[in-house]
Specification:
By secondary structure, the protein is of the alpha+beta class. About 25% of the residues lie in helices and about 20% in strands.
Amino acid sequence: MPDRPLILFPSPERADREKRKRVLPKIETPTFGQQFNRLQPSFKALTKAFEQKALTIQQSPTGLDPELALVFEIIGSVDNFYKSVAKTAGLEWMFESESEPFKPDDDFYQIDKDGNRVDSSLNGKLYCVMSNQQALNQLLSLWQRHLNGEAEVFKRGFAGLRDVFTQIKTIRKWNASDRIAETHALDYWRENLQLDGDSAVPFEIELFYRKDKDRRKAAANAIRQEVQHLGGHIIQECVISEISYHSVLVELPRNSVENLVNRYEDIKLSQIDDIMFFRPVCQSAFVPATDTEIVTFTKEAPLPTGDPVVAVFDGMPIQNHCLLRGRVIIDDPDDYASGYESRNRVHGTSMVSFAIYGDLRKNEAPISHPVYVRPILRPKDIGFGEVMEAVPDDRLFVDVLHRAVKRMMDGDSGEPATAPNTRIINLSIGDPKSIGEITETG
């Protein structure tokens, strides 16, 4: 019997949605003319940046126009900005995100119901678009014409270009600080420099995903050239169009990483406009526990039948363990089992056992379907005779997960799907740099 009571719900009844008047604080913004004058220095700086980039790529064999990732820091939000960008030649949408709260100033501030100024922080968003110089010039021209009083400057579908202008706090190009600030890359590099030895340091460089294949190729080549100039090399490049993902896994010598830590804004690699983020490699690792609890499992149950509906992406389990034998399907196309000694197969064995039985101490019946297991951890020597189970640092983890799911659900390299009826994926792996250990189901 279940140890939790059943919850009985009454018959569903239709209810009218309660209408509540949403009260939003009123934000005072500059007039269109004031805004145009206020942003003139930013426009001049961007125009100069385009001219400088054009000079640097004149000898480039690609023949591609210079482009910059432009950041629009917006007070509030502009819902129709994305639609306008999609319709504007020379602009390509990259992403949007919540920004840090803005401090009020003489241009942007809140007012209360009585019209008095309130010195509260202002919420906003950060919009990032890729732009060539012609597109920027077109934006400036449209805004200038609207300022001059021309009617219907912004045709249907382009109102977002007008609306976003009145709410721009700052417009600038994506810079070296943006590429590092949100990812803890500096902390990761510093930690690696504190370790003994002279091992090279791996890390990920995530690029702005470009729909045009030639631009992706040119961006990767620019990174490869600078990485080699710093004495490093590219381990892997990965493009996953379905999720707009383009990254390279690189490795740099320690002296080059030290230069990045101390003066990253001066290093040419960090100035490449196609780079979105520098990221630490995924660092999930599990040290085998020294103390284990022996649980006696007394309930006999038939072996599972049918296709797997639960998958576990983790370390290699001990598939012949008395509790797992005949209950798991191991899919190891990358041969992670080689060199994975049984004494190190701790975390995967535990998680697979949990997927099959839940808490062993409850002595409940196991699930009736086999569990599909895809090893994504490998043993890693951490010195002094100790080994831990860790995410490999020679592959991009996004690629590892994408290939695992694709092989399981759709098939790979002409082979059929390995477990297409899977409904739950247990991924009890997290990055201590960001979220700790998590379990994902879906």
